[in-house]
Design a protein that fits this description.
single chain, alpha+beta, eight-stranded mixed β-sheet, 3 helices, globular, metal-binding, EC 5.1.99.1, methylmalonyl-CoA epimerase activity, MeMalonyl-CoA_epimerase
Length: about 140
């Protein structure tokens, strides 16, 4: 794993949260995106080398909606950037981690993603992601 790619924060209201984080981080949201496969709308911020992703549910039965219902708004996941997501998934599987995805799927911000079950990581949902390279 190369570095923390972003920290994902579950929010109830994306627009008001964008305003809060623009003030907090003293920078504009550089991208919003809908990820239909995850039933979320996202907003991204950069501060130095770091990124923050805000996630708002678009369906009441989505993972983000269930997370907020159970735990409230807050940190949802930590994402790590990898060079080869397939190799990293294989490595993690061999180490005994339960992966929530059998194969990588398209996520937000031009990434292929896979999640590691939080029961194996002390309650923290871990995302591994790889930049999609266009040839």
């Amino acid at each position: 794993m190369n570095k923390i790619e972003h920290i994902g924060i579950a929010v109830k209201d994306l627009n008001s949260s964008i305003e809060i984080y623009q003030k907090l981080l003293n920078t504009d949201c550089y991208k919003t995106e809908q990820v239909a496969s995850e039933s979320v709308n996202t907003a991204f911020f950069k501060t130095g080398e770091n990124k923050v992703e805000l996630l708002q549910a678009t369906a009441p039965d989505s993972a983000i909606a269930r997370f907020i219902e159970k735990k409230g708004e807050g940190i949802h996941h930590i994402a790590f950037l990898v060079d080869d997501i397939l190799a990293e998934m294989e490595r993690l599987h061999k180490e005994g981690f339960v992966l929530l995805n059998e194969s990588p799927k398209k996520g937000a911000d031009n990434k292929m993603v896979c999640f590691v079950h939080p029961k194996d990581t002390n309650g923290v949902l871990i995302e591994i992601c790889q930049e999609i390279k266009w040839i």
